Structure formats: structure tokens, C-alpha cells
Amino acid sequence: MNFSEVFKLSSLLCKFSPDGKYLASCVQYRLIVRDVNNLQILQLYTCLDQIQYIEWSSDSLFILCAMYKRGIVQVWSLEQPDWHCKIDEGSAGLVASCWSPDGRHILNTTEFYLRITVWSLCTKSVSYIKYPKACQNGIAFTKDGRYMALAERRDCKDFISLFVCSDWQLLRHFDTETQDLSGIEWAPNGCVLAVWDTCLEYKILLYSLDGRLLSTYSAYEWSLGIKSVAWSPSSQFLAIGSYDEKVRILNHVTWKKITEFEHPATIANPKIIVYKEMEKSPRVETESLAFPPARAQASSLFSTQSKYDISQVPVSLQYVKPVADRANPRIGIGMLAFSPDNCFLATKNDNIPNAIWIWDVQKLKLFVVLEQLYAVQLFQWDPHQPRLAICTGNSKVYLWSPAGCVSVQVPMEGDFQVLSLCWHSSGDSMALLSKDNFCMCYLEREEVK
Amino acid sequence: MGDWKTITVPALSSASKIPYQNTSEKKNRSTCGTSEKKMSPSSLNMQQVLRSPLPLSKSMHSFFSAFCTEENVEQSISYLNRELTTLGFPSLYSECKDKELNVVSVLNCMNELLVLQRKNLRAQEEVEIQHLKLGSDMDHLQNCYAKVKEQLETSRREIVGLQERDRQQQCKHRNLHQLLKNEKDEVQKLQNIIASRATQYNHDMKRKEREYNKLKERLHQLVMNKKDKKIAMDVLNYVGRVDGKRGAWRTGKTEARNEEEMYKVLLGGYEQRQKQLLVENAELKKVLQQMKKEMISLLPPQKQKPKERAEDGIGPVLSDMEEDAVELNKENMWELSCETVREQLTNSIRKQWRMLKNHVEKLDNQVSRAHSGALNGSDVISREDHELETEKLELEIQQCKEMIKTQQQLLQQQLMSPCDDDTSMLLQDCYLLEERERLQEEWKLFREQKKNFERERRSFTEAAIRLGLERKAFEEDRGAWLKQQFLSMTSDHKNSEHVKTQSAYSGSSDPDNQLMNFRSRQKKPHCLPSVPPSEELCQTIQHIPHNSNSSVVLNKTTEDSKPKQWKGLNKAETE
């Protein structure tokens, strides 16, 4: 595993281009585009204000930089560095901005979710979509980029509008039986749309592409409901993580629950492997210490090594009791992700924030539990193989694969707290992001032993 | 009065355990009354049993003299007479003379009185005994009564205690029941509260949302109305579309096309899914068929028949269905996915499974019976036998192993034992001695045989030479004979047979030539015992019969003999 040197970064804005050749990063109001292999600066763009969001277009030719405070979106071209484009929402304000799948339209969500403005780079035309839903995942594109689903709310009722992305024609418009829609997501095959309700009610609705309601699923009443949803890459399974610390899997044939995964604090089944991160402090040879100590030595002296040990079942994990009277409590399944080969499902129970649970999808059983020393911030699957990268906010990055798991210290001077990471589309490298810096980590083939 | 220690009737005395020893009079009862309850000084003697009916002590005399003295004899007699007559005795006076004592009647009366006294005493005794008995019974009863009374008391107290406890439990039960009811009510109340709060919340939310929408509308209007230049896009130049084409107008056609596209995508998804499901179905059907076959094979064949017979009316029908199903399945298993086929398959599998289960259960029963020692079938081996067998086998294995070990050891010893050169040499050779001797014997045999064969071959060759010579002679004779024949024949048919004679001549000359060859080659076998000459000779000999038909029989015999000879030669040569 090789690490590159650190580069400056702000707001954790670092993205790989979809074709995998470039890496875009932001430092305050500057956008820097680097080559992925040697990290040399290819382009440098300057925006009008501090950048809050960047996104590559699907053909990797353009990057949009959104500045919400000023309400401006600036688009830069890689081919023609002189080309510029500035979209000003003015008094309407800006809350969110994203590309359309064809890479030629930009969808801006104005403040208060007043409307969504569709700006076209080809025709300089503008379209408005009224009454968008004020929720996080209100816009969803199918994987092939043909259709867009938009959540709307009119007269205290939720609606879904389906648009054809090529000409923005409204294909279907139907209402949903939700109290307060909180998210929508297309299945990877683009035929089914999952719509789920607010956390006050456990309800998930499945609509077909032509707007028919295929099925409704509700596991229980009254208690807090759905927290996170994930489709399996083959569209066979829909995993629903809820506030009762369980994940329920629905199958695509009958849309009924086939199993539920529990996340208890004690694991007693001897067939489950539990990897526990242990600290081991490095041995310090006092004779070889120089005075004053060199900087590199100093940091390595105080950094603790860690390794994974296999714990013997029964294992009891650290359980955090949530604060009872607050809204949005830290309980339930907060993160769900299927591996790209559809073999594993990684989940995180916010009640047990230090652990990651990896389930075998073929057998529908718990496979591995990773217990970290600190709370898990983010995990992401390698886009090509069943390899999971985890960061917990310390200076290490963790990798798990069915062959084993490894904890790698990021060899940087000073503090490098890995807050986020993202994989390169080829799965050969990943970017580790900290608050002010980022670095690239190149993985060798068959790295994890 | 005196101290008469007589035992009086208890009726006279008060009810007491200790019989009083009252003084009494025989004659003067009234006076006895005063002295009845008087305890004589000699009451200390009460401890002693003084139950003698006959008073014998001295004090009796004084008692006797107390009633009648010399002065009042007449009065006492008249008194006694009066008493006795009232009691039913005859009078004491004599009949004829008044105031004269009838001694006889007096004596009779006395006797009667004595008898009476004795009777009374006996009665008194009995009564006393009974009295004692009754007294003891009474004591016993009193004891029992006391005990029973105690028990009654205790049981009464217990009852009271239990009643008390029961009451307390009832109270508790009622309390708990009440609590439960309260809890249930509370739960219901809370649920109602939640429901009402939910509706309230929804209502409020809706209200707020409407307000919010109004604000949004207002804001929207403002934003739209302002139309300031700020809301604009500033682009350097147009960007081409991704696919390089121009943008198209949105028409009804495009809308229809979009709909079509959407449906195509949906259908594509469904078709794919259906394909997957079909494949899965086919696989599962295959598996089920296999399972069925295996189950059928597992079950012993004779078991199936009684089972089928047992199912009476259902049996034949099912078997028919089975046959149909089998036929159907064999023909087009994979294509059919209709209801009936599926049902048939599942039914048949269920049936087989049931049979298999019964069979297994039967086997289990058999095994368990064998365990308990009951009579077992010939195919079921009891555990003890099994264990014995295994023990025997283990012993055998052990023995064999030991034997192998010892043999190995011996072998090692043989190989490793230190010895000097001579012995080692000897030892080295000792294994081969036998073989060597055998080999030598065989060599001898071989050489002998070789000699024999050589001799035989020589004899054969000589015989062959002789035979050749004889043959030559014979041929010459034959030729001469033929000549004569032909000469005789040609004398009959002169011209037409000319050819024949020629041929005959040629035929005859050939044999001569060939015989010459034969002779010359005859010499060869002596010097060169090789195979080819013999073969050539065989061939030439065979040529001879081809030339002349009449000599076929003769040649055959020569053929037979010659090849045989040569064969023999061949054999000798090869050895």
C-alpha cells in the first residue's frame, strides 16, 4: 500500500471523475483538477466564493461548483479551460445543485424548496418544476440515466413525478400513500422505485416504472420506522434499516420480507468471526532515541499501532444508550451498503457505533463483526470486489475482505484524522480525506492478506 | 355402736371410688343411718382389702351384743319377728303358742338370711367389679374426650387461621386484579392519547403546511415578479449535446415514443425476471424428480406393494395418476408448467416421502426392539454380536500387526547383523543357492533336450533325403507308367490327344525338372538349416499337384507327409 503526500483540502470536497482519470479537489474558492496517477495539477480554476459542493458531469468533461451562500453555480470545462459558465439564482437562493445524467443540464433547488430550476447548457433554456418535496433525496435518477423521479408535495399530499431525462417530458404523475415522504430510490435495473415514509411511520412503497403501486410493506406501527434503505446491485433485494436496530430484507419477486437481521449487543454464535481492533504500543528503544527527537520519530512514538485480533465468542459490544427525549436519536441502522458482487451487506447500528456488521447475502446470515476502537464514521465498498474500507476518525484506514482485515496507519507527519474516504472507480486506489488535507492511497493487487 | 366392719351396698353410700367401710346394723337399720357414714378409727385398715364377708374380729362380738341384751330379749324377738314377717319370712313364733320362739323357723330364717347375705355379697362384688370397669371406661372416655376437645380446639384455631389467610389472599388478589385493570386502562388511555395526539399533530402539521405553502406562493410571486437580471445564466458559448445531435421539439410523437420506451424497459425487466424464474423452476423440478427417484430406489420393493394395496380405492387411482404423471413428465417435463403437472409432482413426492418415513420408522422400531433384547429379524444384528465381532476383528488385527513386526525385526536382524567376509559371502549367496541349483538343473535339462532335438533333426533330414530318393524313384516309375498309358491312349486317338500328350509330357518333364531341383536342394538342408529353402520346397511340391489331375490323391499324401516333415524340421531349428 502506497500513500501519496498530503494536499490541502476544504470541506471534504474531493471527487474522482467518472472515467477515473482525474481527481477534483477544493481549497476554499479554488478548484484543483489533478491527474489520478501522478497527482500533478492539470487545471486550476478560481470561483467567486467558497465552494460548498462540486460534482463531475457524467462524461467527465465538466465540473459544477455550487456556492450556496451567493446562490451561484459555476461550471468549468476540462477540455477548454477558457470556457466559463455562471448560473446565478439571485434572490431565489440555492440549496442544492446537481447534474442531470446526460451531463448537459443542471438542476438547482432554490431556497425553501420553492422550485427546481433546470438549466440547459445546450440551449440556454430554463425550466421550472414547482412544489418539490423538501427532503434530502427528493431527486433520483435511474442508473441508465433515462428517467428521473422527483418527489413533490401539494396540498399536504405527496406526489411522485417521473420525467424522461432526454426531453424532460413528464411521463407519470401519481400520488403516494405516505404521510410525509422522506426518500426515494430507484432499483439498479430501473424498473422499480422505492418510496419510504417519515421515520414516524414505518412504511415503504414500491412503484413500477409506469406508476403502478406494486406493493406496500410496513413492519410495525407506532415506533420509529425506517432510517436507511439500500438496493442490492442485482435489484433482487431491498434492505431496510430501521430504528428498532433491525434490517429487513425484501425480495423482488413477492416484495415480502424474507429475513430480518438483528443487531444485538452480545454475539454468541461461534460461527461468526469477530475482529476486534486492539492497540499495541510500539516498543521504544531508549538507546536509539536522539535528543531533541526528530519530528518523524516523535509522531511515530506517540502514534499507537493497532491490529486486529479475533475475539472469542461470546462477545459483548459497547452499547450506547440513546438520549430519550431528543429528536433524531442515534439509534437504529444508520448505514447500509451492499457489496458490488451482491455477496455481502455491511450495516452499522448507531446504538453500537464502534461495530460494523457484515452479512453474507447468499446464506442470509451474519458473517463477520468488526469492532473498532472508535466510532465508525464512514465505510465504503470497493466498486469492483468485496472489499470494505472503513474510517473511524483516527489516523488509520481499515480494510476488510473475506480473506481477512488489516489496519493501516496513514504515514503522515502530524495529525491526519481520516474523516472520509472515497474509492477510485477502478478499485485500485482511494482518497482519504481529513478536515484540511487529503492524500491518495494506492492499493496493490491482492493487497489484503 | 361397735366397729362392725361390714361392706355395705354402695347404694347406701355416696358415689365414690373408695368404698366406704360403714358400720351398719343387721337388725336396726334406722340406727345404722347415724353410724353409716361414721368412719371407724380402724379406717386405716381401709388400705387392706377387707372384703371378707364374714366378720371375724373381736369387735364383732361387741357389735352383736349391742342390739340384744338380757333385758330386752322379748322386745328384740318381737321386733325381729315383725321385721321378718314384713320381709316375707315366716313368723318366728310358733303357731300354737304366742310368744314362744319357734327355733326351727328361727334357724330357717337365719339360714335364709345367710343365703340372702351371700347372694347380696356376690351381687355387691359383681357390682363393684362393674363399677371399677365402668370407672376405668369412664376415665378412658374422659381422656379421649379431653384429647378430642383439644384437637377440636386446635382445629378450630387452624380453621380460623386459614380463614384469615384466605381472606388476606382474596384481598391481595382483588388488589392485583384492580392494579391490572388500572394498568390496562392506563394503556388504553395512553393509546387513545397517542392516537388523538397523532391526529392533532397531523392536523397542526397540515395547518402549518398550508400556511407555509401560502408563504411560498407569496415568495414565489415576489421572486418571479422581480425578474431582475440577476437570475440569469452567463455562458460563453453553447455546449454540444452528448450524443452530438440537435435537440428535438417536444411533440406528441416524442411523447408516445417516450411512453413506448418506458414500457419496453419495464417489459425487458419482467422478461428477464421470468427467464430467471423459469430456469429456477426447471432446476427445482429436476431436483424433485431426482429426489423422487432416489426415494423410490431407497424403499425396498416389496414394501411398496402392500402399501398400495392398503390404500384401497385410492390406490389404483393414484397409481394411474402416477403412471400418467410419469408419462407426462417423461415426455415434456421441462416445458409444462401448468397446475396439474405441478400438483401431480408434489403429490407423488409427498406420497413417496410418507412411505420412506414409514419405512424409516419401522427400521427405527426394529432397532429399538433389538436393543431391548426382543426377537429380532435375521437382517438385524444385535449390538452385542456386533461388538463381539468388532472385538474379534480387532484382536486379529493386533495379532497380524505383531506378526508383521516380528517378521520385520527378523528381517532387519538378518540384514543388519554384523558378520565377517566369508559368512557374509555365504550369506549373500545363500538366498541364491537354491535358485542357482535350480537354474543349473534346468540348464542340464535344456542341453539334453537340445541334443535330443539335434539328433532328431538329423534323423529327420536323413529320412527326408531317403524319402526324396524314394520319391524320385517313384516319380520315374510313374512317368514311365504314364508314358505307357499315353502310348496306349494315343494309339486310339492319335491327333486329338496330341496336345494332351504334350501337356502330359510337359507335365511329366516338369516333375522331372522339379525333381531335379528338389534333389539339388535336398543337399542344402544338411548344410544350411534355414527356413526359406524348406518353404520353397513346399511350394514346388504344391506345384506338382496343379499340373496333373490324376495324381491328386498321390500328391495329397506326399503333401501331407512333406509339410509335416518340414514342420518338424522347423521346430527343431527354432529350438
TrEMBL record, chain A:
| GO biological-process terms attached to the record | mitotic spindle assembly; positive regulation of non-motile cilium assembly
Q: Which InterPro entries match?
A: Centrosome-WD_assoc, WD40/YVTN_repeat-like_dom_sf, WD40_repeat_dom_sf, WD40_rpt
Q: Which GO terms describe its cellular component?
A: centrosome; ciliary basal body; MWP complex
- PANTHER family per the UniProt record, alphabetical: WD REPEAT PROTEIN 8-RELATED, WD REPEAT-CONTAINING PROTEIN WRAP73
What is the protein name stated in its UniProt record? WD repeat containing, antisense to TP73
Q: Which species does this protein come from?
A: Terrapene triunguis
